[in-house]
Amino acid sequence: MRPSVVVTVLVVGVLGLAGCTGGGDPKPSGSGSAAAAGGSGGAVQQAGTVVEGTFPVPGDTDHTVRVEVEPLVVQDKTMELRVWFTPDEELADGGSVNIYGMTGEGDLLPALNDLEHLTQYFVLSETGQQWETDVVRAEAAGGEPVLYQAWFAAPTERVESLDLSLVASWAPFEDVPVTYED
Amino acid sequence: MRPITRRAPLAAVLAVVAGLLVSAASPATDDATPLTLDDFPAVSDEVLTNGLLTVRDYSDSPAFFTVRPYEPGPATKQVGQVEQEQDQTSVTLASDILFTVDGSDLSEEARAAIGALVAQVPAGATVTVDGHTDSVLDDAHNQDLSERRAQSVAAAVAAARPDVVLDVHGYGESRLKVSEDGEDIAEDRAQNRRVELHYAGAPPQATTATAPPTVGAAAPGPYGETGLVVPVPTSGAKLLAEQTVDAPGRPGEKLRVGVEGLDVRGASMRLRVVVERLGGSSEPATLYELMGDDVLSPSVADRTGLVEYRTLSNTGQRWSTDNLRLSLVPGVPVRFEATLPAPLYTTPALAVSVDSRWPTFEDVPVDLGS
Fold first, then answer.
1. B111-170, pLDDT tens digit by residue?
2. Contact between chains at A153 and B4 (C-beta distance less than 8 A)
3. Chain B residues 298-337 within an 8 A CB cutoff of chain A
4. Residues B144, B64: one domain?
5. What pLDDT, on the 0 to 100 scale, is given for residue B207?
6. Does B53 score more than 70 pLDDT?
7. CATH number of the domain that residue B80 is part of
8. Domain boundary among B200, B227, B259
9. Do B335 and B251 belong to one domain?
10. B34 preceded by cis ω (within 30°)?
11. Which CATH number fits the domain that encloses residue B353?
């Protein structure tokens, strides 16, 4: 098991006191080969992302982060979300910036919304453990994508799509496709 | 700008400390491949059904954390609530459905609904009509408003039942139904804005709705363009309706508040509100602060079908944007989004109350989708 997925709260707490968000060498937690090439929202892209948007960093309107979302994948009892975050060059300032910093230092609270059946899904969690990428350790250089993953409970209804909200001040992604692997 | 890039060496030291602490729980690895579920503890049924954190289902079971279902019933309010105690009947009419803000005129549909509610009153009986308000604004204003509203309702009763005796009162804010210091002040105030009818006799029979119901149940998906992202409107962008209002938490500061959209999607109705600070300090302020340390809980009224819809909630959690996390600086609009039940009746327009302290947006067009 890698450290990036364990004791997230502890790491955030320690680094938060230092007023920083990074740690270790600047290595993206995901492969840069999955970077999507331009295109408008809705187009299927090289990495399998189906939608993208560029948003201001919460609390820092001078900088932006590009967000690309892959289809949701349901397997057995869980549903996986994959999102690629790409900071702009200025935000990284020649170094690297982590997902925590790109999303307002605590504003990343993913929710999947089923407006047909009036149900919301949140990241699986238990006694401090969140089934998601450690947003403090996952970082990227300017212009490079970093992968964020999170697991939710499988939908209670067999829906074709769900709305995704990531950060309160960002527009939600509507109708993110849901694929079923079983 | 907040310090979001890496800072060394202090950060590195702390990171090492954190890493050592973490390593006690998990072996370190440089693996940069995507995660799999094997990287986590087993997903137990307890995790999957954690009602508070992972599924929030707002329909039946109050699963709260992970799957949160929402029950539309409690968020849908009909105009008249009837209570019976021995031979005394009380009918509480919701002012938010019947009247515009500070208004006292009744629509034709409202007069008809009130007439139906008093159809069962025994001939010659005395019907007491009591108007009440919340405690917002001053006593004199509220006293006058409660009297005007009581008189309007009494006139509707008299038109339907000229044989009953009317005893009409306005009490302003002197007889609050609930104290306005609870956790949900907006709801407390809404309960207090009312006109009550009291009489000796049987309660009104249930009446059928005059308007045809909508499809009600969820429409099949997908219900829109795949992966659509609708940007937050820029400053000055045209909205369906807008107004300039006072920021309750910042005396002297003004806000531009507008309705961007009111869309029916599946079993839900999505309300998008845009808020923009019109001046004031350049320091960011949360919407929560601007509202006077209060949450925003919009409601939508159907003044024809006489139904009020509120933001869906489950165990105190509303299905809406967290206004503690919406920071505003002057000149940059933000979007607040609330999810309400789909309307019971097909209607081209509804009244939107973003906050009870501000005027209602009347006749906001509804997008019923395809």
1. 888 888 888 889 899 999 999 999 888 899 999 999 999 999 999 999 999 999 999 999
2. no
3. 312, 319, 321-322, 325-327, 329, 332, 334-335, 337
4. no
5. 52
6. no
7. 3.30.1330.60
8. B200
9. yes
10. no
11. 2.60.40
Whether residues B81 and B96 share a domain: the answer is yes
Rounded Cα distance, B214 and B218, in Å: 10
Burial class (CB in 10 A: 0-12, 13-18, 19+), B143: middle
Q: Does B73 touch chain A (CB under 8 A)?
A: no
Is the same domain home to B132 and B168?
Answer: yes
Q: Is A167 helix (H, G, I), strand (E, B) or coil?
A: strand
Q: Say how many domains are in chain B.
A: 3
ipTM over 0.85: no
Q: What is the pTM of this model?
A: 0.72
**Residue B86 forms contact with A (CB below 8 Å):** no
Q: What angle in degrees, to the nearest 10, is found between the helix axes of B108-117 and B139-160?
A: 70
- Contact partners, residue B292, CB within 8 Å, separation at least 6: B248, B249
For residue A50, give the nearest of B33, B39, B226 by CB distance.
B226
| B5/A contact by beta carbon, under 8 A | yes
* B158 assigned to some structural domain: yes
Same domain, B80 and B186: yes
Evaluate whether residue B245 is within a structural domain: yes
First to last CA, chain B: 44
* Structural domain boundaries, residue B57: 34-69
Q: Where are the alpha helices (DSSP H) in B27-73?
A: 45-48
Choose, out of A45, A124, A158, the residue to mutate when testing the contact with B (most B CBs < 10 Å): A124
Of A21, A23, A172, nearest to B4 by CB-CB distance is: A21
B94 in the same domain as B133: yes
Q: Tell me: do B250 and B194 sit in the same domain.
A: no
What residues of B are in contact with residue A179 (Cβ under 8 Å)? none
pLDDT tens per residue across span A127-178 = 677 889 999 999 999 999 999 999 999 998 899 999 999 998 898 898 899 9
Mean pLDDT on B96-120: 87
- Which band of pLDDT confidence, cut at 50, 70 and 90, is reported for residue A7? very low
Integer Rg of chain A from CA: 16
Chain A nearest-CA residue for B56: A120
> How far is B45 from chain A, CA to nearest CA, in Å?
9
